[in-house]
Amino acid sequence: MNEPTQRIAEITLDERSVVSRSPEIEHERSAAIADLLHANSFAPVSGRTGPFHLHLALEDDRLALEIRALSDGSDETVVLPLRPFRRIVKDYFLVCESYFKASRSGNLGQVEAIDMGRRGLHNEGSELLIERLADKVAIDHETARRLFTLICVLHLKGSSHAFGPHRSA
Q1: Which of 27, 71, 106, 167 has the fewest CB atoms nearer than 10 Å to its CB?
Q2: Closest Cα partner for 144 from 3, 8, 51?
């Protein structure tokens, strides 16, 4: 799994029907993508060899991961139901909103406490993603964290939630 070819070299998000996103959310999206492209581990169980272009899209309450090998153009699509992620994403949005509000208030103790909760939910979402992808794509924890951030950003197109700035790491 740690071979240099078994990685994501390019990533795009389905931008159809995307609501306008706040500067904080655009920052989260771009930071998650930059961090992901800098270091990741992504190995389809099918044996396909990368590096890969990954396109993420939401389709009928499912996450579609369209995986294309850059070397030969071969592709495959992995589809995951989003229902198992629904509670974590909803809670994550709520905690991130609280984090943003606390950051503006300047209460460092409150910001740190909320940030610990945010990180815990982010880790929970990442572990669920690793588990749900296990028989389809092998990913490491840091790759899962970045992908979970992008799943949350994609959820915004159908959500009234917005979350404030935080590090995706």
Answers
A1: 106
A2: 8
3-state helix, strand, coil in the chain (%, to 5): 50, 20, 30
Quick: pLDDT tens for 45-63.
999 999 999 999 988 889 9
16 vs 76: CA distance, rounded Å: 21
Domain housing 35: 8-158
How many CA within 13 A on the CB side of residue 69? 15
Residue 164 lies in a domain: no
In a domain, 169, yes or no: no
What is the number of structural domains in the chain?
1
pLDDT value at residue 3:
53
Q: Which of 7, 128, 160, 141 is nearest to 63 (CA)?
A: 128
**Does a structural domain hold residue 108?**
yes
Q: Does residue 1 fall inside a structural domain?
A: no
**φ/ψ (deg, to 5) at 2:** -90, 10
Other C-beta atoms closer than 10 Å to the C-beta of 32 total 23
